[in-house]
Amino acid sequence: MLTFSASLVRPYWAGARGLAPQAGSQSEVESGWRLKITTNQISTARMSSKQEAIEQALAKTNELRSSAVYGENLAFWQRAWNMVKTPYTQLPDLPYIPWIPARLEERAAKRILDLGCGSGWLSIFLARHHFQVTGVDISENAIRLAREWAASEGLNIHFDVGDIAALDYPDGSFDGVVANSIFEHFTLSLARVTLARLRKMLVPGGIFIGCFDMVGGGPGEYYELEDGTHIYTDKGRKGMLLRCFSDQELNELFSDWQILELTTLASGSRFLVAHT
C-alpha cells in the first residue's frame, strides 16, 4: 500500500459593563499585565500551531502532487471528460442549487470562482444570475464544452484549464468561491492547502460556498492513504481520489473562517457557507 508521510487585553477591571478603567493598586496593575502577556502568548502559540499545520500539509501536498498516484488521478478526470461529447445542460436536481446565488447576493459578491466547473452548468447558472464567473477545470475537453455552451447563450464567462491544487490567481481576485462536490476528491492535506490559497484569492470578507458529499461507502476496489482517502483501482475509476470529510474535519479546515451555515441535507451531504 502506498502511503504518504505525512489585542491587547486591558486589565480585568477595565471596560466592565462599559465603565471607564479605574485606578488600581500596584498588584492589580501587575495582575492585569500578566493577563495581557499570557493572552498574547496563547495567541502566538495558536498562530504558530496553525502555521506549522499548514507547512506540514504543504509538504504532504507537494509529495502527493509529484507522485504517480496523483498523476493517475488527473489522468482519470481527463479520460472521464474525453468521453463526453456535449455539455451537461440540465441542472442537477439538488435542493441547495437556488441557495447558491442567494447566499452570494447576501454577501454582495460579484466576481465568482467556480472550482472544478466541468462543462460549466454551475458557471452558466450563476452567469444567468448576472455574476462575473471564472470557471476552472483540469480537463481541456470539459473547458472546451463549457466555452461552447457559454458562447451559444451569449454569456461572458472566463474559463481556464488548470489544476485546482496549483491555482495562482492574484490575491483579492474574487468575491466568492463555489465548490460543488469538489473537495471529496482531495486528501485532507490538499484540502487544507487549497483553502489557505483560496483565502488569499478572496477579498476580505469573501465568501466560500461548498457541498461536501457523503461518499466512499459504496462498492469498489480501492486502497487507502494514511488519512483515509480512497484511491480506486477498478477499471471504471482507476486513479480517482475519493474522501468523505467528517463534520469535525470540516470545522477544523474552516477554523480560520467564519462559518455562516453548515446544513446536513437528506442525502447526508453538507452544504457549507463561510467567509474570510
Describe the structure.
This protein has helices at 26-65, 68-82, 99-106, 121-128, 140-152, 188-201, 247-253; strands spanning 111-115, 132-137, 158-161, 174-180, 202-212, 222-224, 230-232, 241-242, 258-264, 270-275. It is an alpha/beta fold and 276 residues long. The strands form two sheets. A seven-stranded mixed β-sheet has the order 3-2-1-4-5-10-9. A three-stranded antiparallel β-sheet has the order 6-7-8. Strand 6 (222-224) and strand 7 (230-232) form a beta hairpin. Helix 1 (26-65) packs across helix 6. The longest helix has 40 residues, at 26-65. The relative contact order is 0.13. Residues 1-23 have low confidence and may be disordered.
Q: Average pLDDT, to the nearest integer?
A: 87
Structure classification: alpha/beta
Low-confidence stretches: 1-23
Computed over alpha carbons, the radius of gyration is 22 Å
Helix content: 25-40%
Number of helices, where a helix is a run of at least 4 consecutive DSSP H or I residues: 7
Beta-strand content: 15-25%
Number of strands: 10
Give descriptors for this structure.
single chain, alpha/beta, seven-stranded mixed sheet, three-stranded antiparallel sheet, 10 strands, 20% strand
